Amino acid sequence: MTRSLFDKVWDAHVVRAETRERPATLYIDLHLIHEVTTPQAFSLLKERGLKVHRPDLTLATIDHSTPTKINEDGTRPFVSEQAQKQVELLLANAEEHGIQAHGWDSPYRGIIHVMGPELGATQPGMTIVCGDSHTATHGAFGALAFGIGTTQVGHVLATQSLLMRKPKSMCVHVDGELADGVSAKDVILAIIAKIGVGGGTGHVIEYRGSCFENMNMSERMTVCNMSIEAGARAGMIAPDATTVAYFENKPMAPKHLSAAAEQWLSLASDPDCSYDKEVRLNAADIKPMVTYGTHPGMAMPIDGIIPDGDEKALAYMDMQAGAKIAGTKIDTVFIGSCTNSRIEDFRIAAHILKDQSVAKSVTAIFVPGSEQVKAEAEAEGLHEIFMAAGAQWREPGCSMCIGMNGDIGKPGDLIISTSNRNFEGRQGPGVRTVLASPATAAACAIAGVITDARVTPRGLS
After folding, report:
1. pLDDT at residue 403, rounded to an integer
2. pLDDT reported for residue 460
3. Phi and psi torsions of 268, nearest 5°
4. CATH number where 426 lies
5. Cα–Cα distance for residue pair 332/92, rounded to 1 Å
6. Number of alpha helices (DSSP H) and beta strands (DSSP E) in the chain
7. 27 pairs with which residues across the strands?
8. Considering the domain boundaries, does residue 292 fall inside one?
9. CA–CA separation, 432 and 331 (whole Å)
10. Dihedral of the CA atoms 91, 92, 98, 99 (nearest 10)?
11. CATH classification of the domain holding 236
């Protein structure tokens, strides 16, 4: 019987098979936790007199509620007392239960979906869960990774397993080469625009084709990260030589990498395996993309015309059907989030911003995804390029992606964001969000309007 990548990983982790009456019991290899979705879970353990079953398979960090600024006296300006308590409670719970936690003093602290791979904790063939929908990011390594609810976080802490019915499988094929100036972010926005925000509902998506094979790991993470925006349970890309090379010198990578690699490479889908659903796109047809509405499926080529659609969404965004989106005035640019806050993203932004200036009417906020990204960017002098251009270089964290840490826009502001969601109020009450790639975001910061990075002074050559 031929099997897909998803089938192979799923089958290897089933403790008790699914029946009509009950879901399967799935073993979890890695449980990622942060400060927002864990307080209730740890309280549940305490109420029942339970301990964390496998603290060695649990990894913690602080990211969602953490300020991205530091006061002159060294203190951190938490947006609220509750946010500060969330951070303190997570670190206290981790210490009590013997969980490895990356707090303020850690050189690896950052967004959980950035630092997990950087540490080498994320590995091919694993099952990975977190109380965060964008756990799908880790599927870029050939892991089955998905978000879980707060109650399920407690279940995994107590049992290192999860009750779950097997999702259906879906394959998105993208073959061919991307045109110059087209990025992984544009690819996933094009996919979501094609299949819709419900196109992957009930499925695990596998991304196949030369387009993904040619991507580096950062780009693959961007693609898998937004699988959830297509309604999917998870997204996966089969491990290959690029995947294996990523683990060189990672702190938590297997000691015998060559032996691990042999097993990892065997996870690739069998050539003649089948899927419940398949979709195909031609890489050459994809252009730089931006969103125009209030969900990621409302995405369009940046040189296109705003289509007719949800009148309520267009009214909220103050967009007019039939008009060009290019040239729309913007207020803020945010480069960051678990979608696009890796070193490769900031290198692209720095290339465009070098010797340029952020428009006087624009606030540009650049937030590295981890302490490692921050250190590497500063070692390369990227932060100097950003600050010389007039952008703000912040401390690592989720920042303006979700706006629960003080980093929000003003009502009515239009924000060009490299994050993953453009829902109403996602970045603050009344704030309008346009999702874009780091290249597009950097170009917009210079122009002060939505613009195609390919036509900026430095272009993307």
Report:
1. 82
2. 54
3. -55, 145
4. 3.30.499.10
5. 36
6. 15, 19
7. 161
8. no
9. 10
10. -20
11. 3.40.1060.10
